[in-house]
Amino acid sequence: MPTEARDNNRHFHLGTVTDHHHQHRFCSNRISTCKYNGFSFLPRFLYEQFRRYNNIFFLAIALLQQIPDVSPTGRYTTAVPFLIILSVSALKEIFEDVKRRRSDNKVNAFSVEILVDGQWVEKEWKDVKVGDFIRVDNDSLFPADLLLLSSSEQQGMAYIETSNLDGETNLKIKQALDVTAKMTSSDQLSNFQAEITCEPPSRHVNEFNGNIEINGVARHFGIDQLLLRGARLKNTAWVFGAVIYTGHDSKLLMNSKRAPLKSGTIDVQTNYRIIFLFFVLVALALISAAGSELWRSNNIPQAWYLSFLEHDPKGSFLWGVLTFFILYNNLIPISLQVTLEIVRFFQAIYINNDIEMYVVNSDSCAIARTSNLNEELGQVKYIMSDKTGTLTRNVMKFKRVSIGSRNYGNNEDDEFGDPKLLEDAQAGDEHSEAIVEVLKMMAVCHTVVPENKDGQLIYQSSSPDEAALVRGAASQKVTFHTRQPQKVICDVFGEDETIEILDVIDFTSDRKRMSVVVRDKGEIKLYTKGADTVIFERLEQGSEQSVDYCTEHLEDYASFGYRTLCFAVRKLSNEEYAQWAPEYKKAMLAIENRAKLLAESAEKLERDMVLVGATAIEDKLQEWVPETIQALMAADIRVWMLTGDKRETAINIAHSCALCHPNTELLIVDKTTYEETYQKLEQFAARSLELERQEKEFAMVIDGKSLLHALTGEARKHFGDLALRCHAVVCCRMSPMQKAEVVEMVRKLAKHHVVLAIGDGANDVAMIQAANVGVGISGEEGLQAASASDYAIPRFHFLRRLLLVHGAWNHDRSVKVILYSFYKNICLYIIELWFAIFSAWSGQTIFERWTIGMFNVIFTAWPPVVLGLFDHPVPAEQIMKYPALYASFQNRAFSIGNFSLWIGMAIIHSLSLFFLTYATMEHQVVWDNGLTGGWLMLGNCAYTFVVATVCFKALLECDSWTWPVVVACIGSIGLWIVFVIIYALVFPHIGGIGADMAGMAYIMMSSWTFWLALLFIPLATLMWDLVIKSLFTIAMPTPRELAVMYNKRNTSFNGFERLASYSSNVLENMRLLTSSLRGSTTAGSRSRTASEASLALAEQTRYGYAFSQDENAAVAQTELIRNVDSTQEKPTGR
Q: Which residues are catalytic (predicted)?
């Protein structure tokens, strides 16, 4: 751990190190997301195992059996199987943690260049230390938190992509201090020395303060000079940085938590069932001990030959309770846990090898990093999803353009490619002038910096939207290729035109627009681009027709989820500009009320404009995202989107990915104070109740500032109740820890529901770890998320198969394994109670002691395993087509009623098996020679019939008979027959093991009565099941039975199933979905008509305008435009 100075700040030296030990005062850059290490494995493993009550119970039984003469079943019949079970569990945990360690090692082994003795040396991330000088090249991740010293760009600027940290799609601009920005070679850097004083490590990603002292002069640096681990360098050839924080001291990892020990709700429910059976066990022990006391008091005084028992201390009531407690201990199945561990392990292998979740291009597949939560995948009620990189690809494409009454482009092509635009541009009429004007505005009104690299033009931009527009203009032969402080040069249809930049009016989230004043061919023009709402209200009189055309096109774009911008122009006279320019410059230099003065000055110019067009940019969704979300919502799963991006962008993506539809009423919470937030939540809570009564769909949108207040005090309950009622929730502008807090809040409020979190970035790690189940999108971007997750998938749409198929199957299978394990143990071991009635409540076992121990370990070990691995409750194709089956599986699986039914059947079967066997053997003479077989003849026959019955029961409970299931069930019966022959012949002669069994196999199998009973008794016992199953199928059919019957009645699919079926065109599917949601409702059907208030609110947020500028960047937009010269040669940094 690092040691800080007395003032709690971090102090260290840059350059030639005078204190060779300073680097050892801080933690290394090696990271670990493992659950265990060499020291913590045993205590953490034992803690996890003994959170399960059955393990505590069997430990107690194993210890009690060591008391001499107290155990009727021997001293080691529990201890040995219990140690084997713990060993198997330990090996599984080690195997899974080794996979985590390998993933960590992959991250730790990433390469980076470190300055050593004046030379750049390639080393691994784990070797990076505080105070090192490192070089990071374009498109590379930062290995630690760095102080930006210099870069390849002018004035030490660098573009940083932080979507992996905060989810924002725009690039951040960082700028080095002027005292270090000129160090652009390794020689200069090797001679540099300084003292750093900065704040201690913290998790606040937007706050940082420090001082750098060079030659005795101290300079302050802050968040604008800090490059965070996990962020990526973009559009910048290289940067030099000094390492500030390493490893788990970095802000990214400070926002992460230690890998938690997660337990599934099935395990919790199983614990409750085990507690119930424990009390049943205690009750049976007390009843049996009382029966023993009653029998002794009534019979021993008359039996003089048993008089010695009257004074036997082992005949006391407490001793009897202890004896019967050990005798009946197997009512709680000792094999349950190891059976579940085996089943879960192979279920995880199924997930890993599912070819339907494999991506050929990246050679990546689904990975189950833990198998303890397989059943949780089948019980998910809430999904918390990141946006950037998870739902979207963060790739912007210019798709459509509206000019006048004409709409150019189509939705099928990957990018804009309509040749009609250029044809119309060359027509020479008024419309062609508007086309050229729009293309020029796309090429001029922005903060993009061009770079000619190896003959190829590359655009550097903090806004991916602006870069998309510039590329779009270039594709239409208006190419922006040179930026200088006062002008830009564009190739317009083959001829270079120089356009002078006179003034820049910056974009802000309040203005929702950006303007530039240019001089083009001697004419002064105002170019403005922005959201439709702010542009339309600033147009000249008589623009109604243009607005109508544009609105029609915008609605078309909005139906596809495109991000739109409107473009307007105004010609300025020299006199008007000469009058306005000094006023604007004065406002820019103002100290007080600067923002207000700038806005007022801009308003004077941005008026009476002419609308020339609108553009549509597609924020590319990941494959099949809308279909996946619709399928999950059809499965009664609520989907939330948690993102660090802007509200408008988040709402736009929510519509395009089918999380909301146009008639969904949006409840927007965007207040900045606690009181306002509380009032808004109260207002919306009442509104939500009204909407529920009207059966209208509604969703909540809340930003980070409001969320900070919503998660505190009394507002927390209002927020939670409102959020859980919403069909969807969109949380924007969130920090990583806020994501985790929201997940934890939902887990607490929805106690009996499973919360799943899915993300691809390092900012999602805390959320993934806080959820019941964490899913990471694997790949380079999401390596950190995938490493911290419970399951990793290559694409978001695989979540559909992971939950609907693997989740539903695993949940149903595992519940069957648990119920079947309880059933078979009660079926066998409750027979000891019935036998006690006929054995003077003596504690004598009806079965031989080692066959009791072998029942779970060998003879009935395989049926539950094959049930858990090979049973198919419904075909995969069917549940993918009918997602509602997913919710039905949850309702029927592990309910108290289902548990009671299984336990009741176990008791009925045990009664039937014992008393039918007893009746068959009542006269004991079952051979022609007239001999009797003794008590073990009764016990071995009953044992055989139990094994046969529970194996056939497994076949009855299996929804699909496959050869492994049949072989395992029939083979288990045969295994007992073979075992009893070998055991009776061999083991009595080896150290006296099983002496009572000598010759018993021949005695039992030589009786025709036994073979006839083997056919009759199990079948007679299972008739109960056949009758009850038939009644339940008629009265309360299972989801599988309903699906089969429905499938027979309906040969074709309609509604959502037509939409959700795979097609080659996602956009067309979205159109079908939108049309169906907008369709008219019949009488009595669910109304989806939005209220007037809803429509008014939706009008404000209808279109997600295509602005993702960082308005609070280290370098202001005006300053960036004024100080960049793309004609200057860049340093190599070597």
A: 386
